[in-house]
Amino acid sequence: MNNNNDLSQIYLDANATTPVLPQAAKAALSAMEQLFGNPSSSHITGLRAKDLMEQTRCKAKQVLGSEKGRIIFTSGATEGIQTAILSALISARDTLKATQQQGNDYYLLYGATEHKAVPESLKHWNALLGINAKLIAIPVDGYGNLDHAFISQYAPKSLMICTMAVNNETGVYQDLKALETTIRQANKSIFWLVDCVQALGKISLNLAQTSIDYAPFSGHKLYAPKGIGFIYIRENAPLTAVIAGGGQESGQRSGTENLPGMAAMSVIFDQLISTESCFANHQTLYAYRQQLADTLIKAFPQIVFNHSFNNSVPTTLNFAIKGFSSKEIMDLFDAANIRVSSGSACSSKVTRSFVLDAMGLPAWQSESAIRLSFGPAMTQVEVDHACQRIISTAQALTQSCMVLDGANIDDKTPLNGLVQLRSGASCTWIYVDAASKHALIIDPLPELTERLDTLLQCQQLALMAIIDTHGHADHVSGRVLLAKKHPQSIQCDGLGWPQTTLFVTDHDRQFEYIKVADKWLVKVPTPGHTNDSISLLLCQPLTGSDTLASNTLFAFCGDTILMGTLGRTNFDTSCAISMYDSIQLLSSVLAPQSLICASHDYQNEFATHLSAEYLRNPLLQQVIQNAITVDEFVASKLILDSQLNDQTGSEILCGALPIIACSKFKPIKEYSATSLAIALNSPKVKLLDIREPHEYALQHTAKACENVPLTRLVQFMQQHQQDKDSEWVLICRSGSRSLVAAQAMQRLGFSHIAHLKGGYALAH
Ligand code: PLP
Asked: Whole-angstrom Cα distance, residue 471 to residue 475?
């Protein structure tokens, strides 16, 4: 459902929250304007308010099929979960005390795919009440079904069990009848909470016919406003008020009631009860899901659904598209004005879904998960629009050579210059010469093989060389795989460096080079990180008095000089003494501002140059200025590398990360949409849209705006080496990529860089 039939955005994130149903919004407004009384007041205005509240409660009972139990209004499901857990645990603690038992002999069970509100609340109250029972996650199978044998085993020694009716990420529902049998056979008196947040309006719930003790619900997941929810509590199940005060809700939940929220909830209940509802029936919802799924399969043949359609509600689709991260698909869909969510929770580095992990799905599916969800107020018109837009996103990907369609090769915008692709913090560099259609790939990552192959085919490029800057210790090179698909006619050495008879002399040293279109690629041996490490300088051909320093465009230094640090030298094949010499050699063949393209970018800085590194890497500076002996360098390097032990996470780091003092950097100038509109009256201010071409193709501002995707930022910086004082304002979807890019550019000497705070999201 889109308000006012506005189809400019297709909102498919109903499991996060829904818009308010217009009838419900009207009822809430009327409650604010007319039925604004306090239900505790004994005058007529108060009595009317109370009547509305009680009518809503009755409807709730009717919807839930729970004539007997209690319904208490709350602020939402998280509060309902607190109420349930606190009530159950206080009662359990009293029983333990009375029977002189220890809490730590017991368990608290919860489903491994539960919303975090459940395990976190269990942990919180268990500790706060001093029960100290052991929290255990009940495993699920590959379909998301709870392990009943596990429950049978642990329930007899458990104080409480928390399960969910419908999962918020996958839509997978549990067979509550079968679950009840398992639970009650194992333990008749265990407190049972069922989180019903995602079930309301999607499956029927006859709570009175079950032995569920607590069932929390949330209004904003079903077209009511945020701030209203309710909890069903079974007759005779214990209840302790979480909020004490004025004694509202019969003392069970104090605080003046949220009448507008209840008025809206009342309308939602009407829709659930009525046969003439605006909510679609199950059959229609299944048909919507099928249409959306068929369209997704057509648009992205490499799609995988992360759940079975046989045990999930029709309103949720969770999928992954091979070769794309969830962030990439989110950005793409957002540009097409389709709102979905990444099916994963963000951790510090990796985004992956703990729900899909618990189901044992392959890592890539968990890392690439996208959740598309809608509510029962969905309409056929919206589904049709969503499908059209999904097709347009796929076309944009084809256009930008992210996906190969086989046809229309001529309509692709030709690539020219350097492209930086990443997998995690590792980088692959591709240099393309549009005129000759020749390409060069440096440090190909195996995860990117397909993407690289697609790019080469789509752009009809001939691959001149695939070269590694060293034998990588942290990953296998993708070079052999790629070379199989794009065989090289010239013999190469172990790193892919082609045999050559071409030599260039610089600083009295001879270096081999090969020709890549109209450029030279010069090989500079730079052992240290590994004994086979080389640096590759892409430069204009040298004539007359030219030097490598004057002619180098990009220096691919592998892991010798990393951004803010130096490559580690504590591998078996490392040698810190050699690294000392290699750094000195690089400083003689590179200009202070030559762009250094490393094989890792741990802190989103894209590239660097020696001038920028001098400022923050004293060790590098000392070597270059001969202010340190080789022995002193080796000793310092040993200390630096010892810090690696504390920094290794899931990724093997190739250099100890520097601690960058943020205060050292000048803050980036920020524009709001309004101040940017004024600034753009000056012809000196130029806009750079730094999203990827497929996002840009789907949506961009009417104002003249150059598209410089992050993957081409280093190329842009190289082209504007003489133009560092221009005023550029960077924009992206949310303002986070633009900030990172602006920081990188400012660090490399671009003095008038700004960005649009909040990005396109806040610009309209
Ligand atoms: N449980 C589930 C399954 C949910 O999806 C959510 C919300 O995302 C919650 C609990 C928390 O609900 P509320 O936002 O009402 O606190």
From this structure: 9
Q: What's the pLDDT tens digit per position in 704-742?
A: 789 999 999 999 999 999 999 999 999 999 999 999 999
For residue 354, with 0-12 CB atoms within 10 Å meaning exposed, 13-18 middle and 19 or more buried, which class applies? middle
In contact, 164 and 119? CB cutoff 8 Å? no
Q: Looking at the predicted structure, is the pLDDT value of residue 663 above 50?
A: no
Q: How many CB atoms lie within 10 A of CB 641?
A: 20
Query: How do residues 90-99 score in pLDDT, each as one tens digit?
Result: 999 999 999 9
Pair 121, 148: CB distance under 8 Å? no
Extended strands (E) in 93-237: 107-111, 134-138, 158-164, 191-195, 214-218, 229-233
Residue 677 CB neighbours (<10 A): 12
Q: What is the DSSP string of 317-335?
A: EEEEETT--HHHHHHHHHH
Q: Ligand 1 centroid vs 217 CA: distance in angstroms?
A: 8
HSE-CB at 545 with a 13 A cutoff on CA atoms is 0
Contact assessment for residue 427 and residue 421, using Cβ atoms and an 8 Å cutoff: yes
Compute the distance from residue 311 Cα to the ligand 1 centre, in Å. Answer: 20
Q: Measured in angstroms, how far is the CA atom of residue 312 from the centroid of ligand 1?
A: 18
Q: Which amino acid makes up residue 515?
A: K
Instruction: Choose, from 196, 346, 401, 427, the residue flagged as catalytic.
Output: 346
Check: pTM over 0.85? Answer yes or no. Answer: yes
**Cβ(163) to ligand 1 under 6 A?**
no
**% of the chain beyond a pLDDT of 70:** 95
**pLDDT exceeds cutoff 70 at 239:** yes
Whether 278 is catalytic: no
| Domains, the chain, ordered by start | 28-273 (3.40.640.10), 280-400 (3.90.1150.10), 417-652 (3.60.15.10), 669-762 (3.40.250.10)
Residues 400 and 707: beta-carbon distance below 8 Å: no
Q: Is 261 in the pocket of ligand 1 (CB under 6 A)?
A: no
198 lines ligand 1 (CB under 6 A): yes
Predicted confidence band at 763 (pLDDT cuts at 50, 70, 90)?
confident
- Of ligand 1's listed atoms, the one at least distance from the Cα of 114 is 3
How far is 38 from 304, CA to CA, in rounded Å?
52
